[in-house]
């Protein structure tokens, strides 16, 4: 739990197609069965501003001027797009995250809700630092500044060979999904390195197994996390009540 907050912050991470959306739905239903409020969100795109940023990040920037110029020269009209420079991409992700935390995550945690997000800071580190070969320290510092240092209480890394996980995708590939096998492998390795560096926060779960087995692992760990938080919170509450 984050100091000054009574809620629980959970993130799901992993390469595309590992089943994060399914596990988020299972956890939301479980949280509600415990009588608590579950706030489900995602990155990028967890706010109105974030949805605009998400379109840029995942589908590219439409070059309207280029299309107009081509049309004026009787050239075939095509959907021209402009590349997003790596540093600009990092800033866009950070802007989305700053708004996400300010508008959705912190208010929910302060209400005592359970916040479940599909991707957070670690996706920026894995996809941008690992997959796009930017400096991990700079990306982390940028995101920590944008969020005021907010990290999840638990991060579930659903791990799977990207070649297998991408075979599950049923929609057209976006910019990240279509970046190539080498990019996806580097991203997976970056996620695993992040988990190894923070074993207290991460739980790595083999997502190649059946969905119910993956969910059983998530549920058992989540229940233990909540129980431990309750044991820790009880003495603190008693201490506050005993103060004059």
TrEMBL record:
InterPro entries xref list: P-loop_NTPase, Thymidylate_kin-like_dom, Thymidylate_kin_CS, Thymidylate_kinase
UniProt GO cellular component terms: cytosol
PANTHER family found in the cross-reference section: THYMIDYLATE KINASE (PTHR10344), UMP-CMP KINASE 2, MITOCHONDRIAL (PTHR10344:SF4)
Cross-referenced NCBIfam families: DTMP_kinase (TIGR00041)
Gene: tmk
Reactions catalysed according to its record: dTMP + ATP = dTDP + ADP
Lineage, broadest ranks: Bacteria, Bacillati, Actinomycetota, Actinomycetes, Bifidobacteriales
GO molecular function terms attached to this record: ATP binding; dTMP kinase activity
Listed name of the protein: Thymidylate kinase
């Amino acid at each position: 739990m984050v100091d000054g907050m009574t809620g629980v912050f959970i993130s799901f991470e992993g390469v595309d197609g590992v089943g994060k959306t399914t596990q988020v739905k299972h956890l939301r239903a479980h949280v509600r069965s415990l009588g608590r409020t579950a706030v489900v969100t995602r990155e990028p795109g967890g706010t109105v501003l974030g949805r605009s940023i998400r379109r840029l990040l995942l589908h590219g920037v439409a070059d309207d001027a280029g299309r107009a110029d081509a049309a004026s020269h009787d050239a075939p009209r095509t959907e021209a797009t402009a590349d997003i420079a790596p540093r600009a991409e990092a800033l866009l992700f950070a802007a989305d995250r700053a708004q996400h935390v300010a508008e959705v995550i912190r208010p929910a945690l302060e209400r005592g809700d359970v916040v479940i997000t599909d991707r957070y800071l670690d996706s920026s580190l894995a996809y941008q630092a690992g997959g796009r070969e930017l400096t991990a320290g700079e990306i982390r510092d940028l995101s920590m500044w944008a969020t005021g240092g907010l990290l999840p209480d638990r991060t579930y890394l659903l791990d799977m060979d990207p070649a297998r996980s991408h075979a599950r995708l049923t929609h057209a590939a976006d910019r990240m999904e279509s970046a190539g096998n080498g990019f996806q492998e580097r991203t997976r390795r970056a996620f695993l390195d992040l988990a190894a560096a923070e074993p207290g926060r991460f739980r790595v779960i083999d997502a190649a197994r059946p969905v119910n087995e993956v969910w059983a692992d998530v549920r058992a760990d989540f229940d233990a996390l909540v129980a431990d938080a309750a044991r820790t919170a009880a003495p603190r509450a008693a201490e506050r009540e005993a103060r004059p």
